[in-house]
Amino acid sequence: MPAAAGVKPLDQATAFAPASVANVAVGFDVLGHSVQAIGDRVTATRSATPGVRIVAIKGVVQDLPLETERNTAGMAVLAMAKALNLPFGIDLVIEKGIPLASGLGGSAASAVGGVVAANALLDKPLGNLELLKFAMHGEAVASGAVHVDNIAPSLYGGLVLTVGIDNPVVTQIPVPPTVRCVLVHPHMMLSTREARQILSKTVELSNLIWQSANLAGFLTGCFTGNLDLIRASLEDVVIEPQRQVLIPGFKAVKQAALTGGALGCSISGAGPTVFAWCEEQHAAAIRDGMVAAFAAHGLDSDAWISPLDPRGARIVTA
Ligand code: HSE
């Protein structure tokens, strides 16, 4: 949540912005959900010196650009400062909790954390939709394309559908409360840019029909709490078949998840993290099976089990 209107502006604020699973198999570039288990923290401090500066980058990733225009959080906050013609400068400290090039929305989380922290410094804080547009400037730096399927869930929280880019319409989708997301991040990096460049520019009509039915079925299953419909439709027939070659052992990892009772399993964002949706009681066994399948292909991994709760980015300290 951004700081509420009427709340006294702060001189310094720290925001936590959760990681996210983009696409969720069936909604390429339009659907994503937040992951509370990990995220980035960004501290914004008012400065008498105009402009936006990245003063430090800490945490699990440190070799990111310090130049404001090349940094996702820097660009997002700079866009905000310029648009609002802020009379003060902002210094940013970024603490990365999300591994680099992991498919967990790290660049989006830094951008979201930046604008949410900076928002708490404003005399008149902005709403989420305005913050979303500024955060999009940051995401574009990282992936070379404007898409909001990581930004929107990191900012709003939960499972989020975004319709439109120039005037985005954001909807939080309810998820049955027993559903959990298992995430397994193999220790390798995949560039989003490259994972987008390999994609075909055209889609077979039969796959368009199938994927449309899957997206509609998945959302309907979520709205109605119908786990059978979620299981029947949580499958990506367009993007995953093209990208799976980038992830060693992907087929075995997916098979392990489905054998363990997962509702569905696919690539998180551009990968290499693989996610599975499942009911809570199956989550630990599915996680162990996926980790073992990666290990059988020579990859160590980190794994998390995340609820699909609707908390988005928020101020955590002042
Ligand atoms: N929707 C994007 C993709 C998310 O899959 O390329 C990664 O940033």
List keywords for this structure.
318 residues; Ribosomal Protein S5, domain 2; Alpha-Beta Plaits; 2 domains; seven-stranded mixed sheet; four-stranded antiparallel sheet; 10 helices
Characterization of the model:
This protein is α+β, with helices and mostly antiparallel strands and 318 residues long. The protein has two domains: 170 residues, Ribosomal Protein S5, domain 2 (2-Layer Sandwich); 128 residues, Alpha-Beta Plaits. The chain is built from ten helices and eleven strands. It binds L-homoserine. L-homoserine binds next to helix 5.
Radius of gyration based on Cα positions: 19 Å
Quaternary state of this entry equals single chain
- What low-confidence regions span 5 or more consecutive residues with pLDDT below 50? none
Q: How many strands?
A: 11
Shape: globular
What is the domain tally? 2
Bound molecules: L-homoserine
Largest sheet: 7 strands, mixed
Strand-residue proportion: 25-35%
Q: How much is the average pLDDT?
A: 93
Structural class: alpha+beta
Order of helices and strands: EEEHEHHHEEEHHHHHEEHEE
The appropriate CATH architecture of the largest domain is 2-Layer Sandwich
